[in-house]
Amino acid sequence: MQPVHVIGGGLAGSEAAWQIAYRGVPVVLHEMRPGRATAAHKTGGLAELVCSNSFRSDDAATNAVGLLHAEMRRLGSLIMRAGDANQVPAGGALAVDRDAFSAAVTQALDGHPLIEIVREEIDGLPPDDWDNVIVATGPLTSAAMAEAVRNITGERSLAFFDAIAPIVHRDSIDMGVAWAQSRYDKSGPGGSGADYLNCPLDRDRYEAFVDALVAAETVAFHDWEASTPYFDGCLPVEVMAERGRDTLRWGPMKPVGLTNPHRPDEKPYAVVQLRQDNRLGTLFNMVGFQTKMKHAEQVRVFRMIPGLEQAEFARLGGIHRNTFLDSPRLLDPTLRLKAMPRLRFAGQITGCEGYVESAAIGLVAGLFAAAERRGEAVVPPPATTAHGALLGHITGGHVVTIDAGPRSFQPMNVNFGLFPPLERSVVKLPGGGRLRGSAKTAARKQALSARALADLDAWRGALPAAAE
Ligand SMILES: Cc1cc2nc3c(=O)[nH]c(=O)nc-3n(C[C@H](O)[C@H](O)[C@H](O)COP(=O)(O)OP(=O)(O)OC[C@H]3O[C@@H](n4cnc5c(N)ncnc54)[C@H](O)[C@@H]3O)c2cc1C
Known about the structure:
Elements: E1 4-7, H1 11-22, E2 27-30, E3 54-57, H2 64-74, H3 78-85, E4 87-88, E5 93-96, H4 98-110, E6 115-118, E7 133-135, H5 143-153, E8 158-164, E9 167-169, E10 179-180, E11 196-201, H6 203-215, H7 223-226, H8 237-242, H9 247-250, E12 270-276, E13 283-286, H10 295-302, E14 313-315, E15 318-325, H11 327-330, E16 336-337, E17 340-345, H12 355-373, H13 386-397, H14 437-462
């Protein structure tokens, strides 16, 4: 049987190689380190963790990344097996001894009879006779590979920074203050004229907000990030605020073309707009609010905005070096490049974010590649599972609005906002009383998790048997 080629032995590539070999298909894993380094990796080990040593929460019942852990364990993940075996104490989180973890992954892959590890950079398009390839070269993809991918996908299809505006859970926005309306009621293609949620500020609130932005603590760029030019000028909101007190009022917070139905006679001094971020309509991003503020500062400062006092953030803003594709446009539902289907992408380069998410997308890419090689049906996981929800975000869940431009897709961690809502809301206690507040939120998450694990088991049970 011809091998599947996996390029990049990070979190995603290592997991993909393991899953492919587990299903009886030979793999060649190409990793450029230690011969060629990245700006963040320090060793030649596979699945090296470049920063923190945490896989975040291990709570499968009420935390989406904990649920992803549980699903990956059920799917025989090597990354989770090596993580569990090399845990260090971290409360409710799963943290690992990074060297022992990477050594365990390297040893498992090295010792597998169906896996060959080749230490080389793939510095252009893979040879034509590699008919089933996974590209998992990560956020720091080597320049030559990035150039090759850009040549087939187009100039604007590969970004080198993510400039992320915070994303808010729709049900945490106070609609007694905010309202739905597009500027000048424009509907545009596919719009309704009420596609944005608007949060109004009067003069005093605006001035206080600008003061808070300017005074907030920010995170500095790494040296090697600072020397990479922005793809397109995407200024952090606090930098805009520093440039002049009215800069935001003339920019992303301009109050024109909008009427507040709660106070129709009062013209807002400034308005924060939120735009729908996923097809489900459960997540909204703060338009133009990319930021380098520290996470705690973002929560404090953005909750000063009327209507967002209780905002729950699916992800906070950030700007950092990250090579990633405009995946919803470029990839098919099984992560293959539409323009060249022999190439499948996995890991952070697809627009997921985080060690665990990268490994999970590597896992499904590996399953897809192995099924294809074995001539079996390639069936994606249900959208109700954490794997399916994440895959949906990457390959089609994101909404691209006309004014957002082609690069509005930004990487995201797994979160419950990516899951299809429950068919019935979880508000009733067994005795007939109603759940409220955090108890209601926890019950909803538990129900989403239970549904995910049941659906994952059904999907897993229907997969063709692995040939060990
Ligand atoms: C500086 C930084 C810090 C981060 N910190 C965290 C964090 O603390 N927590 C977290 O959850 N996530 C973090 N991330 C995000 C992300 O989870 C990690 O980058 C994760 O390692 C991504 O997994 P991956 O498999 O997609 O890429 P990687 O793990 O980076 O693996 C890609 C591999 O491909 C190799 N490679 C690249 N180009 C080629 C080529 N042309 N030929 C052959 N091999 C190649 C690289 O050497 C590397 O081994 C961070 C990212 C960065 C850049």
